[in-house]
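step=predict obj=Efflux pump membrane transporter n=883
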Amino acid sequence: QYAMRMWVDPDQLAKLDITVPEIVEAVQDQNTVNPAGQIGSEPAPPGVDFTYTIRAQGRLTTPEEFGDIVLRAEEDGSLVRISDVARIELGVQTYTQTGRFNGKEAAAVGIYKLPGGNSIAAVDGVRELMKEVEKSFPPGLEYTIALDTTEAVREGIKEVVVTLFEALLLVIIVVFIFLQNWRATLIPALAVPVSLIGTFAMFPLIGFSINTIAIMGMVLAIGLVVDDAIVVVEAVELHIEKGLSPKEASIKAMEEVAAPVVAIALVLTAVFLPTIFIPGITGKLYQQFAVTIAISVLISAFNALSLSPALCALLLKPKKETRGPLGAFYRWFNNAFGKATNGYVKICSGLLRKVSISLIIIVAMGAGTFFLGKNVPGGFLPEEDQGYCYVQLQLPDAASLQRTNAAAIEVEKLLMDTPGVEYVTSVVGMSVLSGVTNTYSAFFFVSLELWAERKTPETQYKALMASLNQKLKQVPQGIAFAFPPPAIPGIGTSGGVTFILQDRAGKDVDFLWENTQKFMAEVEKRPEIGRVTTTFLPTVPQFYVDVDRDKVLKQGVEINDVYDTLQAFMGGYFINYFNKFGRTWQVYIQADGKNRLKAEQLGQFYVRNADGDSVPLSTLTSIEQRSGPEFTMRFNLYRSAQINAVPKPGFSSSQAMKAMEEVFDQTMSREMGYEYMGMSFQEQKASQGVPAWVIFALSLVFVFLILASMYESWSLPFAVLLCTPIAIFGAFAAIFLRQMEFNIYAQIGLIMLIGLSSKNAILIVEFAKMKYDEGMSIRDAALEGARVRLRPILMTSIAFILGCVPLAIASGSGAVARRVMGSGVIGGMLTATFIAIFVVPASFYLVETLVHRNDHVESQEENPPANPSTDTPPKKNKGDANA
């Protein structure tokens, strides 16, 4: 900001016998707003014809006008003006910081959106505004948007949209291979746009925006919304092959599958209901995802119960033999699938005879889940490639701004020579970690090239950060290091761990510094910690000016004059305001630069005593050199030290936090305490809030209650939920094998897996229960359910798994979150599809046998037929998908 600067010369002040308080008083008297009034204003005697406004000189506006302010009139009639004792210029309010862009002088302007505003809309508005403002720029002045934090959001949405279409294509291919009919494939394919568009339409009504979380939910929803339609189409096709017309087949199929479709939709919705109890940021992330999935699944179920059967009646026809290479592929696939089905039923039959094997599998998977859960590192939000990073430069305490500026220029060159770096914005004279202005700190916004341009291994985010830190170690003038921004912009100033060490005994600075050094020394020894720094600087060289109050009073000097002069000498004294460019700015007085290079120069200034004589400050003050903090941090009222730690590669932020807490417990006394700040505080709150296992347990309870109400049985839901540990084991195994963190995105995927694994079991259990109610034995009903429902289970599961593959191999902005969620869900669905489906018939058999052991007599046949259905099996032909 502009400021009117008066740079006084103490020699001239002494020569003309003028003091700083006298200059301040003169400016305050002569730079004022002076309203004068009107001539002829009311009330006035009759006959006044005109009223005139009186104008008087107001605030001064130019350096020349300030220079003409009169300080004193001499006896000879001459005048002493401010211009006689000071150099006056239109300067800036503060000279403690400098900005550069790519090594060139620049003004760095930060723009922040208002709470509740849309970031992308705000940035778009700024870009449009700058295009208009640029037209009025003078020649040679340009602007660049050096850092746009919404680029990561835009790129993330773009990447997820691409993933969306990739997933849709993979799902359609899978459905086509299984159904082998474009007409039949079209019906599930239509379910995707209907459900997704319907979900987007609901967002404004519930106050949601289209963001990366919502679109990630949409990607997972693609594999879900086709499930219901696939189940309907497959059931209709089965009855058409038995000789029914498409309309009759649709009606018959809906009698069979309406209940499981409703059950699946309710289960997938109910599984996310416990997330409404999660507070804070964690709850917001859960809820956005949960609502997206729930709405899309409910719309999908409605679609499957209405549009899909209608389309089946209109579009489906009896299959005809396909010729050519495609027909040969169909015949090979059908034969292979038929053999796989027979083998699957035989294995299920064997497991029914030895139910204990299924129970052992479930227990083993549960134990494996417990083991992996202990060995997979926990986390909160992953460190993402947001397209930029920060660099902090710290010179020795009390280093001048000129030294810091010279070192910053070297750092800028180093950064600009790094592949993958596009822009470097420097702010010299401030620490981004502490937010404090000082002369020996500088920080840099390092904007990286767009993700599409960073394809080489060395320009990937983690490799680039490692490379930067390796290069920054070579800076000889001070300590420099690169660190990531917070996972959620605006919450804290950095990634990693922000630990606040507190002195809760109210002791002095030395006590806190001693404990800080002791704590950091032990933290550095921990294998989880890669780097640890502190913003607490208690030993900065300083000068202490001791004002002898006794002498001041004896000399008849106003003590305020002493301190005002001292402030004007070194720091700059604010006087009042002036108007310029349609705005109001500040007026300052300060000693010229050459007169404040040493503390001893304070003696060049004088103050006036009660007798009118000038008294040098050197007779009223003494100066001594000390060391101490330039600022102290108070967190929740306690004097504190901020400690920033970065985990070593392979360790998560939660492991680093746990390590620091353990070190605190081992080394600190009861007089000390600790807190967290920024993202670390949010992570601590998430860990102290509703635990993940409670959410999982509540999800299971909600699913159990939904199934119990649908089946009107307290026992049958156990047949569905007994296989959940198998899916959870697969998720943990995938995350463990890919060396990922079990963070909030993995937790969301795990909750989703409860519903997904239940979906497969529901398809078998629902059909088996129907056959049992029709008079089949429990054993035959279980095997019939396994045989008939294998195709829709594999079709829907493989479609969902392949739909999630683009998530698991994602790259670019937000890729870490997508890879974690995709990997966990795929791993869980693989075990649920290829292991749990063998256990489901046995769990149904076990539960129903225990409940109805006196109702039916089980068949004692040693080797039941491969096709135990009492219905007439469909005629096998070359084009039959069930051959």
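step=describe
The first strand starts at residue 2 and ends at 8.
step=end
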